[in-house]
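[Meeting: bench + compute handoff]

Bench side (C.D.) handed over the final construct sequence. Compute side (W.E.) agreed to return the predicted structure before the next meeting so the bench team could plan truncations. Sequence as handed over:
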Amino acid sequence: MSSAYLPSELLDHIVDILHHKRKALRSCCLVSRSWVPRTRKHLFARIEFETEGDLESWKKTFPDPSTSPAHYVKTLFIGCSHVVTAADAEPGGWIRGFSQVEYLEVGSERSNEDEARASLVPLHGFSPIIKSLYVDFTFLPSSRIIDLVFSFPLLEDLTVITAYDIDDYDYSDELPTVVQPSNPPVFTGSLTLSRGGMTPIARRLLSLPSGIHFRRLDLMQFHDEDVPSTTRLVEDCSHTLESFDITCSLYGTPTYLVPASAQ
């Protein structure tokens, strides 16, 4: 019996309808080789490496990044950044395959000081089209976080959540010397800063000569020292700002300070 032929447009439409049904998508992969590329586009649209075991399984299953389905990935979650090494970003390393990621979420499964030794350098600029970045750490110097931020020139939305900033906990008036990026991100989306790292991250963003152009701000203050940075962020984004939320949570007592929408 001859095999049935489906026009590529019809095939793509059928697979796209099933984009949220993973079991059905896996079955589609078994129908024909011609079904595999479109099916993989949805099966591998989001990849999560929550633990070191998840990452090791991926590396063993897809040892060659040039032939792995990593180039289908649009959303990447790395919850075990403390095990990422420089070799992972070299030719043949798993990071090389994820060049089409648009949303990156990075953190560490460890909530202690060992996390502070994690290097984010292997992730710098690995996908040139990243538009949204979510960073969540308990112990990590803000300088390492901002270096990662500045490595994505098309970045629009940024969320940084840190509990304790090793670099700038004293909020001294003199900032450490930071090399400004030659091609800084555009920052035209939303900015969310929370917990202890708010002020050091904000001050580095405010130091950009090209300025910032966020349309939404979501800020949580934990110290009196956060107020000047918060004020500057609102002022510097006033020409593009559409809405903002500012919450004060001193000593664990949240206080709503500013309306959710600002005209």
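W.E. noted at the follow-up: The chain has three domains: 7-43, 44-130, 166-263. C.D. will use this when planning the next construct.
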